[in-house]
Design goal:
single chain, alpha/beta, 8-stranded mixed beta sheet, 16 helices, elongated, manganese ion binding, metal-binding, hydrolase, metalloaminopeptidase activity, aminopeptidase
Amino acid sequence: MASIATIFVCFTASSSSPFLTRFASRLHFAAFPLRSPARKLMSQTLPRATLGLTHPSNIEAPKICFTAKDVDVTEWKGDILAVGVTEKDLARDEKSRFENVILSKIDSKLGGILAEVSSEEDFSGKVGQSTIIRITGHGSKRSPSTPAPFKGLGEAVVAAAKSYQASSVAVVLASSEGLSAPSKLSTAYAIASGIEFALRLTMCGLEMCQGLCWDYLKIIDTSQKQKNQRFRTGPELEKKLKYAGDVSSGVIFGRELVNSPANVLTPGSYGILNLLGRQLSSFISVRELWFSKIDLCLEAANIASTYSDVFTATILNAEQCAELKMGSYLGVAAASANPPHFIHLCYKPPSGPVNVKLALVGKGLTFDSGGYNIKTGPGCSIELMKYDMGGSAAVLGTAKALGQIKPPGVEVHFIVAACENMISGTGMRPGDVVTASNGKTIEVNNTDAEGRLTLADALVYACNQGVEKIIDLATLTGACVVALGPSIAGVFTPSDELAKEIFEASDVSGEKLWRLPLEESYWESMKSGVADMVNTGGRQGGAIIAALFLKQFVDEKVQWMHIDMAGPVWNDKKRSATGFGIATLVEWVLKNGLNAH
């Protein structure tokens, strides 16, 4: 389909709309009040308060209502009507009237104002263009094109709704030429995702209904063959809109985990989960525990508690990891005052058989100083190393979304080796040799190549769960950012089948991936004189060498993929995390469950 721009028609009334905007901390993790004897337990197990006395904010996430209605666009009543248009849609006849049926009807209803304004403002329908028309007593406008542009349309709708204090919004596309029925559903999903995502990000709410009411979506094809055929509302569309909300909640959750400062988000709490035991499925409501900070294992356990019908959680402390011989992971964690916690969530469908078993493994460094090979100098970005747990955020965000969707036919293991890479007298030194849980030895020639060391034991653990496919995600190398830039993640896999699956999923999500080679000859640079391998090679081909390292810890019978997301995990311009990877992973899991039947 052609690229899309947007027209917002804003209808103002004599009384102000009840739309309120609440701006607060980006951190939407709550400090939950204690209602149980756990208060005494907590005071005994947390030896110090959060560094700097910064606490997570207790903010109720905004709610949003999506409904699909098949109505005449000119008869719709609300605050904003958003009309997606292409350059072709703005074609005029000899009397300067719109040839497009939808635009012609709207313009006629508005007495020619639409045509007049578009001419005065030189609005031609080019990508990214938008114009706003304010009319007493009427609606709104904006623009998209494939997943990303249509999401952009949804985000612009929210921006316009905020600016004009709207409480109800309708979205219509002037044409949907070239869109098949499935594509129209995908378009609806993309627009709804953009609205959900933008609304949650700005923490907007409505005084009366606690959300933005998106009343209407109609896609009309004005091509010659399908002129005036309407996009039918019904269960399929309603399902897509709910799916958009579920995925968006996971994306926002993952995004805010990454945004959390390292003094607020730590690997795990001091001993509390150890005292509670390994299994955290349903015997305790984690939300009843108050913490002066948040941590990855608590957030993971809370997912299992919230969706206890499909999730169980296993949290291993350092001693339990030592029993499993996770020397590579524990070597990285050794220097930190915050102890490591190994997270394992398991999703099983509420009913029906399990036809395929998958694992998602995420790098979980809540802060990376570089260790004794400390990050120094311009461009080292040590101040941003809170995002070095972006892989784990993608994994946990996916888990949260799937807990709401509850896909059939698939079992999924979510695995995170959470820790910090710090400096102290107990820390790992350059030249040390560590032993991973599969028995392979690693000479640590660079303590700042720590993520692969934690992933090594996590991948061995994943293979031991009997899974058929594994995808690991990590902010692993600067080399991948140099190769692909800040917007594209690198994909490494020996499996063409798995590559096809993930790229099909990314086509739906709109996230950008690029497959890079696993050049086996580069492994020569990883040989050690005292161990099976070193943990990093030369500067050339750094992302490939890192992927080859991870490959040493995956069973040959298991289909495996590594995604290096060091670039797209963070948006430098917005100084914020992106929630990258979650939408693609959710789509991949769902497709695996359906295709396995």
